[in-house]
Design a protein that fits this description.
The chain is an alpha/beta fold. The protein is built from 26 helices and 10 strands. It has a 6-stranded mixed sheet with strand order 9-4-1-2-3-10, with helices on both faces. β1, α1 and β2 form a beta-alpha-beta unit. α20 packs across α22. Bound molecules: flavin-adenine dinucleotide.
């Protein structure tokens, strides 16, 4: 029996799962594994390695759902805890050579690339004491022939040269490896340009982390086949470069290229994989238990200590452990967790239902008209399902793209770079373009990994952000003068800024773990431009409170608002929270839903209750807070500060 471990990560689904598909199409018995990795709790905060509190909560239900689906096939999701190399090593030993393959779908966060590169290396290559690179492979240009199977040792400078296998469709794409080795020979980031090999292997360079300095690469088993697949994006980030052979930094040409490829050479990328699963495809629950419980094989198992149930992960009790949330509601048991749980629709079945509803109610075609109205359910609300991979981006893309195209001619055709587009096709593209924003975010994170916590535009390093501990002087607003920036941040987090649309958004987030995109932009802009608090503070808060917290999308969203990212909003574009509110929530329906104390305000007054009209209706400061700053003043200050950067 040939067993393949399928490592589930942010692909918690059985359908359209390339790693799983590969296993069954090669006649393997699947051993499904989820590893709760050490860094999920203790990873570097600054790099967003630790999972956010809301993420953990959703993960609990998503894992339960996946586990139930797997048990319908008579099998079992093994949940392990620890360092993935250590626990997998122990697990594979436990199975005494009957595991022939380990497959997974790729992750793109910088720390995950590093960990998965190490894992692949660890499982695949045997350390032999020589810093030898034995290439049995061939690059396309013929200089090195055949399948790459380099054997590598970690170098002193802690850089690891590793091999990534690409999937089948990629064979003609060009590769640019954007990183540099740390040592003197290839200083800084590697910018070697590589061509994809015939066998579709890609040679790339990853930097190792300092704490791994002494780690041994004890390695493993030559018989083990280790493969990763592209299952979370439509096109892998290294497959696409602009005409100058550089990574795209502007969305429009990037997305045009996507649509162009889908109309032609990459048409298959938007077709979900079709396969049927049966109990025969899985290792049975009984077989798994027998092997796991058999302690007589002499293998001292850390792995069995690491084996746990989903309940043991305690993901639902994370609210009170979280530094940020603790600051707001310091109870021992966190009511936030109960409240948030009501909004969870986790798992593959629920994700599929949400997508079907979006399609059947015609919401996909009315998306363009409704997407900016936070008081409507005008968007798909699939972001969390997509983040956890409960549904694949390809399934969502295909479902919308396959909608009947209709016959009308689009007025929108210029915007999508197409000729004579049928109207409903253009309408579909309103939505599909959002999925490409998601791709763009991952693309940027891959090519510019430092941007998860640093500005892409260098000059923004010098922006004069408010220091969190300073008492704010200088603003003419009397209330602002009494607060530290830290207190302002708190007010923003709690939805107590005195700007109703911002407060409604922040309360929606706290209540439900999700916030409408338009309001995300307004609330984020308020933090960055009105309060002049570093975007990273906002990104951290979102990281902990959003169910869909996603390093790529969150980073791009914040850098876009701050003006420091690729294709970002220009620095002088400062959202006015009042006019945004009047425009996108004209009757204040959304505001009233989340800010109950403003329930009595008229549509006219509700956008700025601090202006005279509303004072008649409510006691400002008691029912609803004074504005934390004066937008008009802060706008000018922010503009002055931004202008300094341009000098
Ligand atoms: C400051 C800020 C932070 C954000 N943080 C996140 C985050 O952590 N996780 C996250 O998934 N999105 C984030 N977004 C993007 C966007 O707000 C959400 O993806 C969207 O609101 C999710 O709702 P939906 O599923 O109904 O999206 P829809 O409008 O139905 O769009 C469909 C899908 O396209 C993708 N998408 C849509 N808009 C964007 C976008 N601007 N950037 C990237 N992908 C997009 C999402 O996967 C989404 O589910 C952020 C935006 C901003 C301005």
């Amino acid at each position: 029996m040939s067993i393949a471990i399928i490592l589930f990560r942010n692909d918690l689904r059985l359908a359209d799962n390339p790693a799983l598909h590969h296993a069954i199409s090669h006649g393997k018995k699947i051993l499904p594994v989820f590893i709760y990795e050490d860094h999920f709790d203790s990873g570097n905060e600054a790099n967003f390695e630790r999972l956010g509190a809301a993420t953990k909560l959703w993960l609990h239900y998503s894992l339960k759902s996946l586990s139930e689906s797997i048990s319908e096939y008579g099998s079992k999701l093994l949940v392990l805890k620890g360092n993935q190399r250590v626990v997998l090593n122990a697990l594979i030993d436990k199975f005494e050579n009957s595991i022939s393959s380990v497959y997974w779908n790729r992750r793109y966060e910088p720390h995950h690339i590093k960990l998965d590169t190490e894992l692949k290396e660890f499982l695949t290559y045997k350390a032999d004491g020589n810093a030898e690179i034995e290439a049995r492979g061939q690059l396309k240009d013929g200089t090195v022939a055949g399948r790459t199977s380099s054997r590598l040792r970690r170098t002193n400078d802690r850089s690891v040269l590793s091999v990534h296998e690409d999937h089948e469709d990629d064979e003609n794409a060009e590769i640019e490896a954007p990183r540099q080795l740390k040592d003197g020979t290839v200083a800084g980031r590697t910018s070697s340009r590589l061509r994809r090999t015939n066998d579709r292997s890609v040679l790339r360079v990853h930097e190792d982390q300092e704490d791994d300095e002494n780690a041994e690469i004890e390695a493993p088993r030559q018989y083990l086949e280790v493969k990763s697949f592209g299952g979370n994006l439509l096109i892998e980030p290294w497959e696409l470069l602009n005409k100058q052979s550089k990574p795209y930094q502007v969305y429009t040409p990037f997305s045009k290229q996507y649509f162009h490829l889908f109309e032609g050479s990459m048409a298959d990328r938007i077709r979900p994989l079709e396969y049927k699963l049966s109990a025969d495809n899985f290792l049975s629950k009984e077989d798994i238990s027998k092997i796991i419980e058999n302690a007589g094989n002499g293998v001292e198992l850390q792995s069995l200590e690491s084996l746990c149930s989903i309940e043991d992960l305690n993901l639902r009790d994370r609210g009170e452990e979280n530094k940020n949330t603790k600051n707001i509601i310091p109870e021992q048991y966190h009511p936030w967790v109960d409240k948030m749980t009501k909004y969870i629709k986790a798992g593959e079945t629920k994700a599929r239902e949400a997508l079907d509803e979006f399609i059947q109610t015609n919401s996909a075609l009315s998306y363009g008209e409704k997407r900016n109205s936070p008081f409507l359910k005008g968007t798909s609300q699939l972001s969390t399902n997509l983040h956890f991979g409960e549904i694949s981006v390809r399934q969502v893309y295909a479902a919308v793209n396959n909608l009947d195209s209709g016959k009308e001619i689009s007025e929108n055709k210029a915007a999508i770079g197409a000729v004579d587009f049928p109207l409903s096709k253009a309408k579909k593209y309103d939505y599909l373009k959002q999925l490409i924003w998601r791709e763009f975010a991952h693309y940027l994170m891959y090519h510019f990994p430092h941007t998860v916590n640093q500005p892409l535009r260098e000059e923004f390093k010098y922006f004069n952000w408010r220091k969190l501990d300073d008492i704010q002087a200088g603003s003419e607003n009397q209330n602002a003068n009494k607060l530290t920036a830290h207190q302002m941040l708190k007010k923003w987090q709690q939805g107590e800024t005195g700007y109703p649309i911002v407060d409604a958004g922040m309360k929606e987030l706290w209540e439900t773990g999700w916030m409408h995109n338009r309001v995300r932009m307004i609330a984020a802009s308020f933090l960055v431009k009105d309060l002049r608090i570093h975007w990273i503070e906002g990104a951290k808060w979102f990281w902990d409170t959003l169910f869909d917290a996603d390093l790529a999308n969150n980073t791009m969203g914040w850098q876009w608002v701050a003006g420091s990212g690729a294709d970002a909003a220009p620095y002088f574009r400062i959202f006015n929270p009042t006019t945004q509110s009047e425009r996108f929530d004209p009757d204040g329906i959304y505001i009233k839903r989340w800010v109950k104390s403003l329930g009595g305000c008229s549509s006219k007054d509700i956008h700025a209750p601090f202006i005279a009209g509303a004072l008649r209706l409510m006691k400002l400061g008691e029912n609803y807070p004074y504005p934390v700053v004066d937008h008009d003043i802060e706008r000018k200050v922010a503009l002055d500060e931004f202008k300094k950067l341009r000098k």
